[in-house]
Amino acid sequence: MLANRQILLIVSGSISAYKALELTRLLRKAGAIVTGVLTAGGARFVTREALAGITGQRVHDDLWAAEAEIGHIRLARLPDAVVVVPASADLLARMAHGLADDLASTILLATRAPVLVAPAMNPAMWEHAATRANMAALRARGVTVIGPGVGAMAEAESGAGRLAEPDDIFAAVAGLLAPSARPLVGRHALVTSGPTHEPIDPVRYIANRSSGKQGHAIATALAALGARVTLVCGPVAVPDPPGVTVHRIESAREMLAACEAALPADIAVMAAAVADWRVAREATQKLKKEPGAAAPTLTMALNPDILATLSHHAQRPGLVIGFAAETERVVEHATAKRLRKGCDWIVANDVSGDVMGGDANRVHVITANGVEDWPEMPKDAVAGRLAARIAEALR
Ligand code: CTP
Q: Backbone phi, then psi, for 359, in 5-degree steps?
């Protein structure tokens, strides 16, 4: 699996950096070609001679020298995987924010290869809200994280922060490059996400509290498994998932048109919170409050049901998955919704709490075979598990 695969190994600053040498030995024994990149911090713990000796390749550590020799873009494009061992709090923060102020961060910003990071730092740094936010951002972008483990640390402090063991990192790299890691290659997935805005007049609209976090996480997770993903999304503040084709729309009718234009697809996941109704006649001018006049009455019209339309479409995707946002009798309502809409699965959640806009979700997956209750987990974990379930169903 690893024979002749190109691995770019970035070593950043941590006392555990010596373990990167052991990892390199394992990778080379399996036939991989390893190219080393040292950050300034990494070079304080591992010499470039040691890394060059064990990789059998020259080591890159200077953005401008690399530029003259091969170019950071080529260094970023060459590998089948980029592996950051150890990944310091600083490098993870620079990755999370897209900085490109040295060779390692520039490669990490420019690469399209799968990226694996093995964090190592002091437990207080690992638990800091800043690091937690950075890790959530990286995970949401599809970065694979291994460790850190809990155990004795160099500073005689204990807690999580210890670099994962070379054997485990090796297994994770092999997993990243296994063909089974990308089971959705060749499949097209259509995902909807976010709310819709239904105009009242040129300045006002009707909307809902959907943030797009869950739908965007699903698009990311499907792309990470190799699918070609088209994401049709309403107005959201969350960033576009990398490597995904994004169509931005506002109203339910625009969402339907964009979805139909994206067909054919193998998979459709309708995570958007589509407005059920729109204002029947959108005012062409701003509604004015005339002195003494009664408040306006809005007459509503039913919007098209995108999920039901796709479920009964001549080009129906092979697997159609809807969501059901419920505030009571969640499973019962969602089970009825699955049959009513004609989709294959329904992912039901209770939105009476702070799920909408929040980072965690507790869902029930309803299929023709019954109901699976999933524990509460972060939205990107729900997305990862759902994508894996989809891949299994299509196998
Ligand atoms: N949906 C859709 N088009 C609509 C309304 C909903 O595609 N016009 C999709 C959503 O994306 C979701 C599923 O249908 O996948 C269920 O959405 P939900 O709002 O829970 O259901 P409703 O159809 O609004 O049903 P109810 O009002 O009975 O809850």
A: -105, -10
Output the furthest CA–CA distance in the chain (Å, rounded).
86
What is the model's pTM? 0.75
d(CA 177, CA 174): 5
pLDDT averaged over the chain? 93
Mutating to test ligand 1, I would choose from 278, 305, 310 the residue with most ligand atoms within 8 A of its C-beta, which is 305
Q: Which CATH architecture has domain 182-286+293-394?
A: 3-Layer(aba) Sandwich (3.40)
Alpha-carbon distance of 116 to 168, in angstroms, equals 12
Matching fold, domains 6-180 and 182-286+293-394: yes
CB-defined site of ligand 1, < 6 Å:
192, 252, 270, 272, 274, 276, 303, 305-307, 322-325
CATH superfamily to which 6-180 belongs: Flavin prenyltransferase-like (3.40.50.1950)
Q: Where are the domains of the chain?
A: 6-180, 182-286+293-394
pLDDT tens-place string over residues 324-339: 989 899 999 999 999 9
pLDDT per residue as tens digits for the range 225-234: 999 999 999 9
Name the catalytic one among 4, 134, 208, 303.
208
> What percent of the chain clears pLDDT 70, i.e. is strictly above it?
98
